[in-house]
From TrEMBL:
<dbReference type="InterPro" id="IPR002905">
    <property type="entry name" value="Trm1"/>
</dbReference>
<keyword id="KW-0949">S-adenosyl-L-methionine</keyword>
<keyword id="KW-0819">tRNA processing</keyword>
<dbReference type="InterPro" id="IPR029063">
    <property type="entry name" value="SAM-dependent_MTases_sf"/>
</dbReference>
<dbReference type="InterPro" id="IPR042296">
    <property type="entry name" value="tRNA_met_Trm1_C"/>
</dbReference>
<keyword id="KW-0479">Metal-binding</keyword>
<keyword id="KW-0489">Methyltransferase</keyword>
<keyword id="KW-0863">Zinc-finger</keyword>
<dbReference type="GO" id="GO:0008270">
    <property type="term" value="F:zinc ion binding"/>
</dbReference>
<dbReference type="GO" id="GO:0002940">
    <property type="term" value="P:tRNA N2-guanine methylation"/>
</dbReference>
<dbReference type="GO" id="GO:0005730">
    <property type="term" value="C:nucleolus"/>
</dbReference>
<dbReference type="GO" id="GO:0016423">
    <property type="term" value="F:tRNA (guanine) methyltransferase activity"/>
</dbReference>
<dbReference type="GO" id="GO:0000049">
    <property type="term" value="F:tRNA binding"/>
</dbReference>
<keyword id="KW-0832">Ubl conjugation</keyword>
<keyword id="KW-0808">Transferase</keyword>
<dbReference type="Pfam" id="PF02005">
    <property type="entry name" value="TRM"/>
</dbReference>
<keyword id="KW-0820">tRNA-binding</keyword>
Length: 674
C-alpha cells in the first residue's frame, strides 16, 4: 500500500484525520479524565508532540498550508510533506531543531524512497521519468508511458527518451552532433562490403541502435549486423527501433537463448541481431570483420578484446570522446589512460590522433597483429581512428617500430621524431632543425609520446569512401572526405573522379584487398580469379612511386607564425607560394588555418615573411608597400628582384611610402638580430 502522505485531493487527507480521530479520543480518555469532544481532530501527517488535535477549520488550514502547498505532484497524485518518524534523523543533530526540521521528508510514489528536500524530490522524480520508470508500484492503474520523440537521420527512424542528448540523464544516449562521425564510419563499412560479402559487423555500444540500423538499411544483404549494449533499457529501445524500421530482430541475451520478432508492414529479409552483454565479452566470444567502438569516454579498455578475434584484413574503428585528456587539458589523465606525455601545442589535434593510434598499435601487437591506418580524424567533439588489421608477427613488428617519441621545441614550436635505435645520444637537441637551445638559456625542448609516427591516411581507401558517400547521398561527409584526400596526397589539386576507383583497372567489381610487403597502397582483384604476374608488377611499381615521398608529419598554423606589424597573404596564395618554392603543401582538416608541408619551419617563416606586407597606421601610407633592395641585402627576401608584375603594383613614389620602407627595414633588421 502507498504511504498516507500520497493522496489525490486535500479532502482525502481530511478523511484520514477523521479515521485517526477515534484512536486519538480513546487514548486520551484512558490516560486522562478530561472530556474530549468529537470535533477535535489530530493531523494524520504530524506527531502529537508537534501538532495537537484541533477543530476542523484549524486542521484544514494546517493541512493546506503546511502539507498540501509544498507537495510534489506526479501523475495526478500529490506527495505531501510528512513529519511522522519514518525518516531517520541524523545522530549529530539533537534537540528540538533536529526533531522538527530534519524529520520532515517526502515519500517517492515510484520507489518508496524518503527524500528530505522538495527540490531533491523533484529531481528524483525527473530521473525516474528520464529512465522510463513512470509506473508506480502503488497505483493499480498503469501510468501512461512518456511521449517518445522520433528522430530521422539518413532515412532511419529512431525513438529516443527525453534528455536523449545528455548521457548522465538517460540510458539511450543519442547525440545529433555525431552525425558526421556516423557517416564516415558508414562509408568505411561500405568500402569493406565491396571487398568481400557478406561481412559480420558489430556496433559494440548500440544505445539507440541508430548506427547499426543505418548499416542494415542501406547495405542490406552485404552485412550481418550485430548491435550490443549492456543496459537493459537500451536493448529494449534498440528492439523497438528495429521494429520501427521494419527489420527482423534476433535477440541474444545469452549465448543459448534466441528469440526472433518481425516488425509490422512489408516483409524484410534483413535481420539485426541484438545482444545484451558486456562489450569485452562479446568480442572475446565471437569473430567479426568490422568492429566499431564508441564508448562514453576513452576506448582503451576495449582494445585488447577488439583485436583478439577480429578477422584478417578486417577493420576496427573507434571513436574517442575524452577530448579533455587527448587535447592536453587534463595531461595526467592522458598519461593514465594512454601512457603518453603530451602538452598543448599548435598541432594538438593531430597529436591526439597519434596518441590514440599508438594505443591501438600496442593493443594489436599484443595479439600478434599489425595495423594500417586508413583514416584519422580529430574534430571538436571526437577523435575517430579507422585501421585495417594485418595478422602475423611481422606486420606487428613493423607497426610497433613506428611508435616513437617526439622532440618539441617550446620556443619556436619546431618538432621532429626521434631517430630509430636504442643508443642514447649525448645531445638530443641536435636532432631539432632549430638552434633555440644554443641561443636561449635553460632547457628549451620537451619529449612527447610515445606517438604514432607513420601516415595517418590511405589515399586509395579515402577515394573509395568518397565514392560511397556520393553514391549514398551523404552530403555532410563529402566536403571532409575531399579535404582528407588532398591532405593524404599533400597537394592542393582537387581532382575527384565520379566513377568507382575499381573502374580505373577496368574491373567490373571490387575484389579482395591485397597488401604487399613494405608498401602502403592497395590492389584489387575480381573474386574467383588468381592474380596475374602483370597485375602484381604494376601494383608494385605504383606502390613504390607513392611510397617514395614520405607523408609530412604535423602542420603549422599560419597565424601562430605571423609577423607583428605585417599583413599575411591569403592562405590559398600562401600555399601556392610554398608549392612554387618546391615543397609539398596542402591544407588540413585538423586546423582551418593550418598548412601541412614538408618545408622546415625556417623556410616556412621565410616564405611567409617574403609575401607579407607592412601594416600602416595614421598618415604613414594608404596601401601596401614593396620592400626595397636594401631589405633584400639584409637576407629577408628579394621583393622586386624577379621583376614580376605582381610585385610592381606595390611600388609607391610618395613620401609616406619611403617612410614606411624605412620603418620596415629597421623592423626586419631588429627581427634578424633577435
Amino acid at each position: 500500500e502507498r504511504h498516507i502522505s500520497i493522496q489525490r485531493h486535500l479532502a482525502d487527507l481530511e478523511k484520514l484525520a477523521e479515521l485517526k480521530e477515534g484512536g486519538f479520543t480513546m487514548a486520551v480518555s484512558q490516560n486522562t479524565d478530561l472530556h474530549v469532544t468529537d470535533e477535535k481532530k489530530p493531523c494524520p501527517l504530524c506527531p502529537e508532540e508537534k501538532f495537537r488535535a484541533c477543530y476542523s477549520h484549524k486542521l484544514h488550514r494546517h493541512l493546506q498550508n503546511l502539507h498540501w502547498k509544498v507537495s510534489v505532484e506526479f501523475e495526478g497524485y500529490r506527495m505531501c510533506i510528512c513529519h511522522l518518524p519514518c525518516h531517520p534523523v541524523k545522530p549529530n543533530l539533537v534537540g528540538d531543531q533536529a526533531s522538527s526540521k530534519m524529520g520532515a521528508h517526502y515519500h517517492c510514489i515510484i520507489c518508496s524512497a524518503t527524500i528530505t528536500r522538495r527540490t531533491d524530490m523533484i529531481g528524483h522524480i525527473n530521473r525516474h521519468v528520464n529512465k522510463g520508470e513512470t509506473e508506480s508500484r502503488f497505483i493499480t492503474v498503469p501510468a501512461p508511458k512518456p511521449s517518445l520523440e522520433v528522430l530521422k537521420e539518413s532515412a532511419t527512424d529512431v525513438r529516443v527518451l527525453p534528455n536523449y542528448s545528455t548521457p548522465q540523464k538517460t540510458d539511450s544516449y543519442f547525440n545529433p552532433k555525431m552525425k558526421l562521425n556516423r557517416q564516415l564510419i558508414f562509408c568505411a563499412l561500405a568500402v569493406l562490403a565491396e571487398e568481400r560479402k557478406p561481412i559480420e559487423c558489430l556496433d559494440a555500444f548500440g544505445a539507440t541502435g541508430i548506427m547499426g540500423l543505418q548499416w542494415a538499411k542501406h547495405l542490406r544483404s552485404s552485412v550481418k549486423v550485430t548491435i550490443n549494449d549492456c543496459n537493459e533499457n537500451s536493448v529494449t529501445m534498440i528492439q523497438e527501433n528495429c521494429l520501427l524500421n521494419k527489420m527482423k530482430v534476433k535477440l541474444n541475451t545469452k549465448e543459448e537463448d534466441n528469440d526472433e520478432a518481425m516488425g509490422d508492414g512489408e516483409e524484410n529479409t534483413d535481420t539485426i541481431e541484438v545482444t545484451k552483454m558486456d562489450a569485452n565479452v562479446i568480442m572475446h566470444l565471437r569473430s567479426f570483420d568490422f568492429i566499431h567502438l564508441d564508448p562514453f569516454g576513452t576506448s582503451v579498455n576495449y582494445l585488447d578484446s577488439a583485436f583478439r578475434n577480429v578477422r584478417n584484413l578486417g577493420i576496427v574503428s573507434l571513436t574517442s570522446t575524452d577530448i579533455s585528456s587527448l587535447y592536453a587539458k587534463a595531461q595526467h589523465v592522458a598519461l593514465r589512460h594512454y601512457g603518453c606525455n603530451i602538452v598543448r601545442t599548435e598541432y594538438y589535434k593531430e597529436l591526439a590522433a597519434r596518441v590514440v593510434i599508438a594505443a591501438v598499435t600496442r593493443a594489436a601487437a599484443r595479439c600478434n597483429k599489425g595495423i594500417e591506418v586508413l583514416l584519422a580524424v580529430a574534430l571538436e567533439h571526437f577523435v575517430l581512428v579507422v585501421v585495417r588489421v594485418l595478422r602475423g608477427p611481422s606486420p606487428a613488428d613493423d607497426s610497433a617500430k613506428k611508435i616513437r617519441y617526439l622532440i618539441h621545441c617550446q620556443w619556436c614550436e619546431e618538432r621532429i621524431f626521434q631517430k630509430e635505435g636504442n643508443m642514447v645520444e649525448e645531445n638530443p637537441y641536435q636532432q631539432l632543425p632549430c638552434d633555440c637551445h644554443g641561443s636561449m638559456p635553460g632547457k628549451t625542448a620537451v619529449v612527447l609520446g610515445p606517438l604514432w609516427s607513420g601516415a595517418l591516411f590511405n589515399t586509395g581507401f579515402l577515394r573509395r569512401m568518397l565514392f560511397e558517400a556520393a553514391q549514398y547521398g551523404l552530403d555532410e561527409a563529402q566536403p571532409l572526405l575531399k579535404t582528407l584526400v588532398c591532405e593524404a596526397e599533400c597537394t592542393t589539386l582537387k581532382h575527384f573522379p565520379t566513377h568507382s576507383p575499381c573502374d580505373e583497372n577496368k574491373q567490373e567489381e571490387c575484389g579482395v584487398y591485397i597488401k604487399t610487403p613494405n608498401t602502403s597502397a592497395e590492389s584489387y582483384l575480381v573474386p574467383g580469379k588468381r592474380k596475374s604476374e602483370e597485375v602484381i608488377r604494376n601494383a608494385a611499381k605504383r606502390q613504390k612511386s607513392e611510397g617514395s615521398a614520405e607523408h609530412p608529419a604535423f602542420y603549422y598554423n599560419i597565424h601562430r607564425h605571423s609577423i607583428k606589424g605585417m599583413n599575411m597573404p591569403k592562405l590559398n596564395k600562401f600555399l601556392n607560394y610554398l608549392s612554387e618554392a618546391g615543397y609539398r603543401v596542402s591544407r588540413t582538416h585538423f586546423d582551418p588555418m593550418g598548412v601541412r608541408t614538408n618545408a622546415p619551419l625556417a623556410q616556412f617563416k621565410t616564405v611567409l615573411m617574403k609575401y607579407s606586407t607592412p601594416t600602416y597606421t595614421g598618415a604613414q601610407a594608404e596601401g601596401p608597400l614593396h620592400l626595397t633592395e636594401d631589405i633584400q641585402a639584409g637576407e629577408q627576401v628579394q621583393a622586386g628582384a624577379d621583376g614580376k608584375a605582381e610585385d610592381a603594383e606595390f611600388l609607391e613614389d610618395d613620401k609616406s611610402g619611403v617612410a614606411a620602407a624605412t620603418f620596415t627595414k629597421n623592423y626586419l633588421a631588429h627581427c634578424t638580430a633577435e
